Every structure is written in structure tokens, then in C-alpha cells.
Amino acid sequence: MDSDHQRDDGHSTSPIWVSDRPDTDADTGTDAEPAGAARTGAGQADPASVPVVRVPLRSLIEQPRYRNLRNRALLTVAVALVAGFLLNDWRLGVTAGIVAAIADAVYRARSHSTVPAWRRASVAERRTEAQLRKLERNGYRTLHARAIPDTEAQIDHLVVGPTGVYAVDSEKWDKQLPVRVQMGKKLFHGPFDKKARLAEAKMEASAASELISKAYGRDVQVVPSLAIYGPAVPWKIMTIRGVDVYEGGRARKWITKRERALTDEEIQRLYEIAAEVLPPRYGED
């Protein structure tokens, strides 16, 4: 195995500050009023003079909720008319239309979620999470989907346990394309060079290590890794550009096949620090 231990976290951040304060008058510091609003009494705006914004019916119909209802109504009418004509019975047509509406509602309920797609864990993340859950009885603690502050980066799984602290990123790749390595330093998935993905995983672990170490008062190494699901990985564990790469099903063994390095008290303290300095990507439920 050939590994490159050079630090590769020369990233920059650019936080965007958004003010939620109301617009204020530059001279008086008071809340700005709508242009042309008349004032009555003790500085109060006259309700009769404030323009009323009317929302066009077309814009309401185009909203997703009403659009789905509109489409369902059209489907119901169309099925009822066609079925009634073909069966020569308007009652059967109405029944068919109702059945079509129910089927459409059930389909949309099963295929759509009130939770945005970007908040749902991927198949690969769920498979890794299932493995890590089995480590709890052995004293391991896990945090899932933790954000690196002031960046868009995310650690899929941060594990703190007797053998150390680990960052696991779960990847689902096309199984039709082979996974290969060149000269121990270049990871490829088919024709695609995964250098950027390795650099991202290393940066995430380095940032987490820096944040946890600062709060803990001692150096804490967070070991980065890439758990690959889908294609066959022609090795057990290989360190490429400072990141351990392995087939996703080996995540649990990759963590436990090491010597004990932390006490129970250290594990609990590091877990609490990690939960504080690495906020959940999607907020607490």
C-alpha cells in the first residue's frame, strides 16, 4: 500500500450573513413605512389607505398543493367519462373515476414525502448506520450527518469508541463500473478520478479533528474513510491519499480491528464535545 500523508485541507470559507431585522430609517432608526402610507392619530397608518395586494387565482392554482388537486380532479373526470362511455353505464363510470382518484392519492402518498429529499439518508448511509448500531453494545458512540461549521461539507458518520475516533463517508457507486487504484495514490471508479472525493473526506476529518482537539485540550486524531457500496472493491482496506478506502460492508471491522486507545470516560467526553462542535446537518428533530 502506498499512502500520501501530506495535509490537503487548504480550503477557504465564505460565510453569508443574513439579517432578519426589519428595514429601518437611516436617520431615526425607526421602522420604515410603505411608501405613500397615510398616518393618522399617534403615528398610526390609516388602514383604509394601505394598498391591498390581491393574489391572482392563477398563481394559487400553480402552487404544488393545488396543482396536484387539479390534476387529480381532471384524472377523475377523464376516467369517469371514458369508462362510462365504454361500459355504457354512467354509474360504473363514476365508480371508475373514484377508484382512479383513490389510486392517485395512494401513489402520491407512497412516492412523495413531507421530508425533503435532501434530508433523507441515502441507501449507503442507512447500510453503514445499521452496521454501526451493532457497535453500541461494545461501547461505541455514533453521530450521523454532522456538518462542518461554515462549510457545505458533512461527515456521514462520526464514531467515537474504544479504538479511537473515525469519520466514515458512505458512497453508493454504479456497480457496473470497476473500482481500481493506480500507483497507490489515484482512485478511479471506471474512468472517473475520485481525487476530489478523497480530498473532501480528508478535509472533513481534519476539520473535525481540529475542532474536537481545541475543545478537548489535547490532540485527537479523526481517521477518515470511504465506505463504497455497489461495485466490488478488489482489496480489503487501502490507504489512498490519507483516506482508508474499503467495501462498505467492512466498516464495522475496519473500526474494531485496532488496539484499545480510549477509556470509557474519554469516549463519553469526546462524544459530547463532537456533538457540540459538529452540529447536525438538518437540525434536531
Give a structural overview.
This protein has 285 residues and is of the alpha+beta class. It folds into two domains: 55 residues; 160 residues, no CATH class. Helix 2 packs antiparallel against helix 3 and helix 5 packs across helix 7. The radius of gyration is 28 Å and the shape is elongated. A hairpin with a 6-residue loop joins strand 3 and strand 4. 36% of the residues lie in helices and 19% in strands. It contains seven helices and eleven strands.
Q: What descriptive keywords fit this protein?
A:
285 residues, NERD domain-containing protein, NERD, 36% helix, disordered N terminus
CA radius of gyration: 28 Å
Give the strand order of the largest sheet, numbering strands 1, 2, ... along the chain. 3-4-5-9-11-10
Q: Treating each run of at least 4 consecutive H or I residues as one helix, how many helices?
A: 7
Question: What class would the helix/strand composition place it in?
Answer: alpha+beta
Low-confidence stretches: 1-45, 111-119
Count of β-strands: 11
Strand content: 15-25%
Overall body shape: elongated
- Domains, number: 2
Main sheet attributes: strand count, strand direction, barrel closure: 6 strands, mixed
Share of helix, binned: 25-40%
**Measured distance between first and last alpha carbons:** 43 Å
Order of helices and strands: EEHHHHEEEEEEHEEEHH
Mean pLDDT: 79
